[in-house]
Amino acid sequence: MIKLDKVVKSYKIDEETTFYALKESSVEIKDKEFVSIIGPSGSGKSTLMHLIGLLDKPTSGEIIVQDKKISKLNDDQISSLRNEFIGFVFQQFNLIPKLTVLENIL
């Protein structure tokens, strides 16, 4: 299970301006559940994917994967969780030209 609980991702533009890519977003994805993330450009889809994929950390809120709070884990532990429990199917493929098809898949 992957759970985002009131996750915020913001970027400080200057002393007076903060840009919010996500504001208090919550979602729960159960084991073996397939999810599509759709929306208009600029709606936070990529930010959400980076957070769900444990590629980025939220400004506030909590991400929980397999009952483990990500904020309590080190980078190696986060990488292990990502490797074991998270997978993406992208809209476009990103192959490395020097590798064979099989090598790109593995």
Automatic annotation (TrEMBL):
The keyword Cell division does not apply. One of its GO terms (molecular function) is ATP hydrolysis activity. It holds the Pfam family ABC_tran. Signal peptide: none annotated. The keyword Lipoprotein applies. Residues 22-104 form the ABC transporter domain. This is Lipoprotein-releasing system ATP-binding protein LolD. It comes from Candidatus Roizmanbacteria bacterium CG07_land_8_20_14_0_80_34_15.
